[in-house]
Design a protein that fits this description.
Chain A is an alpha+beta fold. Chain A contains six helices and eight strands, in the order ααααααββββββββ. An eight-stranded antiparallel β-sheet of chain A has the order 5-4-7-8-1-2-3-6, covered by helices on one side. In chain A, α5 packs antiparallel against α6. Bound molecules: zinc ion.
């Protein structure tokens, strides 16, 4: 049975679908304005609730629990790597050593946690490509991208240096392009030495990317590029 | 802008940035808690649900990407499903049918954030444009998380029509809401 019909929007909302069914329905969703509107409505319906002031200590309790649960989960996961696929976009634990340099850069960006998770791990079978990005005219910096294909996923690690300082909310945004269509693939702000790094992992749609580019965006989170391309390369 | 920065925060959370998770928590604590209390009618259970939601986000379970629509749609739907699971596991007797409550409660509370207030007024106005049956479908399906069987028996309609009635009620509500928002924009 395929989940390609408007009727399934109710089941989709109830979260009873398998991953395969979710994918099928989301394919339908892409082209169905009716279903898109219903999904959009679910971002608004909760406002029918009467506003209730959360208990003062709730935040402390919940965040403590969240971060504590995380530690226990990491420990439990160690002997059974099969459980890892649930944590889809998190950095994988079995990357091998050369990547640690790039990840160290990430840790400069306040991500020391990822580095701790990555050290001392065994090597695995992985395909990797390295590409140097070409600076646009008048841009001084340089960047390199590592594309790592591991299992079904494509990981993109960008490390850059000699970057111009950013102003205000500006950010360096990495994009992957397929036939001219970009998707955001990580963003970073350089450290005071002009170095920066971004990590991004794609679980789906990992084939066919023909270009990588870095733009200087006026603010983080743009879904389409607004700023100028500073570095780019064909893949 | 808000949507974009949610997406950015979510990306940072995927990289285990605790500060980003805290920011996301602060941003949605109140609406999620209020929503979960409306669903569960039990502040303790609502807190349990909220904790589960943020554990899921932190562990990267139930992954968000743009094919799922707006970030808030995904977040609220995920939270709703967490609450439904907890409600079904709850030992306490369920609320008697006569007390399932109204979809819209007109008592308003002091000190609501202006933005929330506006959003709330718009959706409440839109709800009033639905038929009584449609309001009931949304209340029972969306906020109470009742099974289709239970909805069929409460509303005394054939089981086979429940899904499409829910869908039509949601569709109608979205359409009305859109109309309300358009009128609001003209008034401004
Ligand atoms: Zn549809």
């Amino acid at each position: 049975m395929t989940k390609m019909d408007c009727e399934y929007v109710v089941d989709y909302l109830n979260g009873t679908f398998s991953e395969e069914e979710i994918r099928e329905f989301e394919n339908h969703l892409k082209n169905c304005a009716d279903c898109q509107q219903i999904i959009e409505l679910t971002g608004e319906l909760p406002y029918l609730a009467e506003p209730i002031e959360p208990p003062a200590e709730m935040k402390t309790r919940i965040l403590a629990k969240v971060f504590e649960e995380d530690v226990t989960e990491e420990q439990q996961l160690e002997p059974k790597p099969a459980a890892v696929p649930m944590a889809k976009r998190t950095p994988r634990r079995n990357w091998w050593t050369p990547l640690i340099a790039a990840v160290l850069l990430l840790s400069l960006l306040g991500n020391a946690y990822a580095f701790l998770q990555l050290s001392d791990q065994p090597e695995t079978e992985t395909a990797m490509r390295e590409v140097n990005l070409q600076p646009s005219e008048l841009f001084e910096g340089a960047a390199q991208v590592k594309l790592i294909r591991e299992d079904e996923a494509l990981d993109v690690v960008v490390s850059a240096e000699g970057l111009e300082e950013l102003q205000g909310d500006e950010i360096y945004q990495v994009w992957l392009l397929k036939e001219g269509q970009p998707i955001p693939a990580g963003a970073f702000k350089p450290n005071p030495n002009g170095e920066g790094a971004a990590y991004f992992s794609l679980e789906e749609n990992t084939e066919g990317w023909d270009t990588i580019a870095i733009t200087r965006e006026p603010q983080a989170g743009n879904e389409l590029p607004q700023g100028d391309i500073v570095l780019s390369s064909e893949l | 802008m808000e949507k974009s920065s949610d997406f950015t925060l979510y990306g940072r959370i995927q990289q285990k940035d605790k500060e980003a998770l805290e920011q996301l928590y602060d941003r949605y604590e109140k609406i999620l808690f209020s929503f979960l209390v409306k669903m569960t009618e039990d502040p303790d259970l609502a807190e349990e649900a909220l904790q589960e939601v943020f554990i899921k986000i932190w562990r990267g379970k139930g992954e968000y990407n743009e094919s799922k629509g707006k970030f808030t749609s995904w977040l609220f739907t995920m939270s709703r499903n967490v609450a439904i699971d907890l409600i079904r596991k709850r030992k306490k007797p369920t609320v008697p049918l006569e007390e399932v409550g109204e979809l819209v409660n007109n008592e308003s509370t002091v000190e609501e954030a202006a933005e929330w207030q506006e959003q709330k007024e718009q959706i409440e106005t839109a709800v009033q444009e639905l038929s009584g049956e449609q309001q009931k479908m949304i209340q029972l399906f969306y906020f109470k998380g009742y099974t289709h069987e239970k909805i069929a028996s409460i509303c005394d309609i054939p089981l086979g029509t429940v899904k499409s009635r829910i869908r039509l009620a949601l569709k109608k509500l979205k359409k009305s809401l859109h109309g309300v928002q358009e009128r609001g924009a003209i008034d401004d």
